[in-house]
Amino acid sequence: MDDRFNTIAGWTLFGGIVALGLSSLSAHYFLADKEHRPETMGYAIEGVVEEGAEGGAAAELPLANLLAAGDVAKGEAVFAKCKACHTAEQGGANGIGPNLYGIVGKPVGKHAAGFAYSADLAAKGGNWDFATLNEWLKNPKAFAAGTKMSFAGLPKGEDRANVILYLNSLGSNLPLPAPEAVPAAGAAPAAVALVGDAAKGEAIFAKCKACHTVDQGGANGIGPNLFGVYGEPVAGDRGGYAFSDALKGKGGNWDDATLDAWLAGPAKFAQGTKMTFAGISDAQQRADVIAYLKSKK
Q1: Which residues of the chain have pLDDT under 70?
Q2: What keywords would UniProt list here (predicted)?
Q3: Model-wide pTM > 0.70
């Protein structure tokens, strides 16, 4: 009985050791030399956003700004993962990939003497300037579909900029581009001027004729006559029309910006106004009406 128990216990222990060993071997196999995310994911994982996917990610700064704020030493550290295929010292031999000393500013696909570049890369043309290097480092296969380079790329703009700075320090030393002006975080985007269409504005204005006339010499009605109103003072003399105190207190003239704000929401523009119209929510339609009012002079 004891022998049988010992036999069972021994086989159980042996099975556990084998399972542990296989688990360790498989882990080493799947992790060895695989510090990068795969270029193509095997399957989607719910809740995980793929690198480079839009939505929720902060907008990347222009390359010139990233270069200005970059760090050569950090670029050298990122480049360590490239040393499996590339040398970077002057006179270094080509390996799986070409030697990269002095590459910045040199022709694409022709820099390293004796290296057999892919036909796709050799045919690209142009030079390895900052913008081209940035595009290449972001996704080599998107840059040249038939490239021999199997590296998936660097998704972070900061990493790419730092590597470019490091490569530029290796015998090229080209001057960096000037940083671009960018809006502060959270700032509203610059407004785009809309070009109004007077004919379309006249059609939209049809709904306003219940209260306003717009012909020269037209009588005031529920609202004032609007002929020649563009450029005149807000709540100025309109043939004796009695404007609300709220509108009379606004000041300024009926220019594009003031008319646009008024047409977008009269009650918001001057609380206490007599005008009951809710406003025109579409910015293009407001621009069209303003163009029409400009034409009535």
Answers
A1: 1-11, 13, 16, 18-58, 184-192
A2: Electron transport, Heme, Iron, Membrane, Metal-binding, Transmembrane, Transmembrane helix, Transport
A3: no
